[in-house]
Amino acid sequence: MATARTENVDPPAMGLNKQNGQLRGQTKPASVQPGSSTQPKVLGATQKAGTASQARGTIKFGDDWKKSLQLPPKDTRVKTSDVTATKGNEFEDYCLKRELLMGIFEMGWEKPSPVQEESIPIALSGRDILARAKNGTGKSGAYLIPLLERIDLKKDYIQAMVVVPTRELALQVSQICIQISKHLGGVKVMATTGGTNLRDDIMRLDEIVHVIVATPGRILDLIQKGVARVDRVQMMVMDEADKLLSQDFVVLIEDIISFLAKNRQILLYSATFPISVQKFMTNYLQKPYEINLMEELTLKGITQYYAYVTERQKVHCLNTLFSRLQINQSIIFCNSTQRVELLAKKITQLGYSCFYIHAKMMQEYRNRVFHDFRNGLCRNLVCTDLFTRGIDIQAVNVVINFDFPKNAETYLHRIGRSGRFGHFGLAINLITSEDRFNLKTIEDQLVTDIKPIPGSIDKGLYVAEFHSSAGDCEVEEVQERSGHQQDHT
């Protein structure tokens, strides 16, 4: 285990609105690693992705167009075989538009990852796809690149739609889409999610929109109102498809598809596919091309530890981890919204900067927390499973399960927030006596080895040496006497 200490600052001044999720002491921007992306300050609006003059005005036939690119700093970090075990293809091999290639390279994407190699040529051919690949291996690029390649700027209607389960993921995907397409000369991308003003979305749809990124409930509402015309959509993408086909969303998804043309293309991407996906595939996909890059489920770059503790020891443990680990940014998961807020308050009382986010917050506060954390304004984020789906913040190198999840699927998506795109990460699980069975079950189902944190042995259980100056730091109110509140998006 690393020994370098995270910055421990003076006790925080609790002056900000509690409900905006930003409880913090003296903040210091986290050291964002090369290749990490940022979220724009204006979120969810229709945005114009550059002008033709940006790409074509300065490039002449015979020029070395790559010399004109504004490339990010080269990412020299070691990567695992999850993203390096490729066939050796280049993005140029797929006959993509030069302007699209410019956006790809300026994103810092040098070569296609395995899922991109498998997916891009098939998606360009118009065939349905069912793709299973690990979290953080480039699934967004696997569908956004062919999607943007097929956009026809001469057509002033919605041509492609990306459906995602959470608002934060919708904002992230739309921003990536805008960045990649900025040289294409007029691709208009719109993000629409629940919790925002419906009237604003209606006004934006009065103008030209080529690509729409949405959560299921909001886009269905716009379709049923006759505002979003999707009858000419040529490609529908379902990111985190296993969640979209769960009981929470599947009826909405089926309703959305009923408004599409019969010759539409449907692409499904996820790290896990339950049995329900097979039924959906039979009913709605036409001879789909199946991609499975999941010989093992967990990312190779993530080291997993656990520590047996009592509920009263958890905050002691957390305080010691902060003091011993070299943390760029960390995400700390709890099993309910109430525990999220109370734990965030305890962390700030210990002197560490901390944000929190959950689905019961107002959307404007969720957007602000998401934006600021992506930009490195705080080291630690406490959240519910709202933040397990697709969120890509490459500076996050530590994930801590303050509350251990109940099933393997949730565990897999949680720890996948670290170790993004083949980089190394650390996952630490705080295990109480009630979690021991779930720990063993998850290890067996994921065929993974979660090791004990090196420490002393007490009554046959591994217990890390969590002695600190924090005092008796039990999060008393966090111990809920009834069942956990579920957090929905």
Q: Report the major sheet.
A: 8 strands, mixed
Whole-number tally of structural domains: 2
Write down the Rg.
23 Å
CATH architecture of the largest domain: 3-Layer(aba) Sandwich
Question: What does it look like?
Answer:
- This protein is of the alpha/beta class and 489 residues long.
- The protein has two domains: 195 residues, Rossmann fold (3-Layer(aba) Sandwich), CATH 3.40.50; 246 residues, 3-Layer(aba) Sandwich (Rossmann fold), CATH 3.40.50.300.
- The chain is built from 16 helices and 17 strands.
- The strands form three sheets. Strands 1-4-5-3-6-7-2-8 form an eight-stranded mixed beta sheet. It has a seven-stranded parallel beta sheet with strand order 11-12-10-13-14-9-15, sandwiched between helices.
- Helix 7 links the parallel strand 4 and strand 5.
- The longest helix is centred in the middle third of the chain and has 14 residues.
- The radius of gyration is 23 Å and the shape is globular.
